[in-house]
């Protein structure tokens, strides 16, 4: 009898809890999940309470689900390179009003009239909901979210030039990967130094070739932010049937993975260019992921992040994918071309070239320790090759002569 009264008390308490939740969380607060239709446009944002740095609380909802105080979402993508075009395409296909901030008015005019970029992926047509401009004030004045897709080595100067036009408290999403050579800072450092600490930031990474995204190929990425609600809103805003966005709070892990994978891809390209075979390349990439994990955990990253989309996942795509700029650069080095000749012959940026040198300095100055070249032989070896201290063959042969020891990735 006592047991029966206890069960009835529990059931009664659960009903009261559910009733409270129903009052506090109306149906309009929920977003369709996997298996539900995409929400119609215009996309709008539900208001409620949120921390000061990211004042728009609540998940992004369709107009039919919006409450009495809707906020129309507008996104500005800074950078008209391959990945900037890809992100604009993702958002444009969902009907999100998107402004693309490019360097020249001529490029902006062609994008607006022909919906194609004159230099990058010229055969890719952008959605009609994407508008381009070279005027920062016009592009950023009403932005709800700002996506930064400028290469890392050019980011600081670019951000300082537009900082006065970025709306206060507007969250900034970085799609740039690497480490700045002058300051040895990751994008999280550069953004906070240029745009201040009184706003929220997020970092997008994962195996994501721009052309495949534009063509609608299935892609999975991760967005990391110290503000989990911002990450969730961004995932809802950007995700579609072909572009899936997962969330994380491990910003450092995502940043380390995005930087180191480009260096490993340079080494993988050299291995292929030298004709060393699949066995050698597989071993090289695996050991490169080990160095990524070692550096990440030293800096406080989670091993699970390094093993995820932004670490091992992005490394696999960059090392083995035919569209990888870093792999192509390394392949040409392995074929005997010089760094200078390769740089002169392309307008595309292989981030791993500068990142490898910056990582060596970063590890030496920030991490410390004994015989760092033995702990990070691939990162140090790639930097030596790019600086002309070793040939690609000498560098890769040196890896084969490393001391034998227990396989460990700690």
Question: Which terms summarize this structure?
Answer:
3-stranded antiparallel sheet
Structure notes:
This protein has 410 residues and is α/β, with parallel strands linked by helices. Helices cover 49% and strands 10% of the residues. The protein has 18 helices and eleven strands. An eight-stranded mixed sheet has the order 6-5-4-7-8-9-10-11, sandwiched between helices. Helix 2 (82-93) links the parallel strand 4 (75-78) and strand 5. The chain is globular and about 60 Å long. The termini are far apart. The relative contact order is 0.09. Residues 10-52 and 61-70 have low confidence and may be disordered.
List the helices and strands and how they pair.
Elements: H1 2-24, E1 44-45, E2 60-61, E3 71-72, E4 75-78, H2 82-93, E5 98-101, H3 105-114, E6 130-133, H4 136-140, E7 145-148, H5 152-162, E8 172-174, H6 187-195, E9 201-205, H7 210-214, E10 219-224, H8 228-238, E11 243-248, H9 251-273, H10 278-298, H11 303-306, H12 309-320, H13 325-334, H14 339-344, H15 352-367, H16 372-375, H17 377-386, H18 392-400
Parallel strand pairs: 4-5, 4-7, 5-6, 7-8, 8-9, 10-11
Antiparallel strand pairs: 1-2, 1-3, 9-10
Helix pairs in contact: 5-6, 9-10, 9-12, 9-13, 9-15, 10-12, 15-17, 17-18
């Amino acid at each position: 009898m006592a047991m029966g009264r206890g069960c009835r008390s529990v059931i009664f308490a659960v009903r009261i809890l559910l009733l409270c939740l129903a009052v506090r969380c109306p149906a309009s607060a929920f977003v369709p999940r996997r298996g539900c239709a995409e929400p119609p446009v215009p996309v709008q944002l539900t208001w409620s309470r949120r921390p000061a740095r990211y004042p728009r609380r609540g998940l992004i909802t369709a107009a039919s689900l919006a409450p009495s105080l809707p906020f129309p979402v507008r996104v500005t993508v800074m950078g008209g390179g391959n990945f900037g075009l890809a992100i604009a395409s993702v958002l444009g296909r969902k009907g999100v009003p998107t402004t693309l901030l490019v360097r020249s008015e001529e490029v902006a005019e062609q994008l607006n009239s022909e919906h194609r970029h004159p230099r990058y992926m010229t055969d890719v047509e952008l959605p009609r909901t994407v508008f381009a401009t070279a005027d920062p004030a016009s592009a950023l004045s009403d932005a709800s979210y700002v996506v930064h897709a400028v290469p890392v080595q050019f980011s600081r100067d670019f951000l300082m030039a537009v900082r006065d036009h970025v709306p206060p408290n507007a969250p900034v999403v970085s799609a740039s990967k690497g480490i700045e050579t002058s300051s040895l800072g990751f994008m999280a450092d550069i953004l906070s130094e240029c745009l201040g600490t009184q706003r929220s930031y997020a970092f997008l990474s994962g195996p994501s070739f721009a052309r495949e995204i534009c063509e609608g190929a299935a892609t999975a990425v991760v967005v990391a932010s110290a503000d989990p609600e911002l990450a969730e809103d961004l995932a809802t805003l950007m995700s579609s049937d072909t572009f899936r966005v997962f969330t994380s709070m491990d910003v450092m892990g995502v940043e380390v993975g995005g930087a180191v994978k480009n260096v490993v891809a340079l080494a993988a390209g050299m291995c292929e260019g030298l004709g060393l075979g699949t066995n050698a390349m597989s071993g090289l990439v695996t050991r490169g992921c080990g160095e990524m994990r070692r550096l990440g955990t030293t800096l406080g990253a989670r091993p699970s992040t390094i093993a995820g989309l932004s670490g091992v996942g992005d490394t696999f795509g960059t090392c083995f994918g035919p569209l990888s700029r870093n792999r192509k650069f390394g392949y040409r080095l392995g074929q005997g071309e010089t760094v200078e000749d390769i740089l002169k012959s392309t307008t595309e940026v292989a981030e791993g070239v500068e990142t490898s040198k910056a990582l060596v300095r970063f590890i030496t100055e920030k991490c410390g320790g004994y015989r760092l070249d033995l702990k990070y032989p691939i990162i140090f070896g790639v930097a030596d090759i790019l600086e002309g201290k070793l040939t690609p063959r000498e560098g890769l042969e040196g890896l084969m002569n490393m001391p034998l020891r227990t396989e460990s990735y700690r």
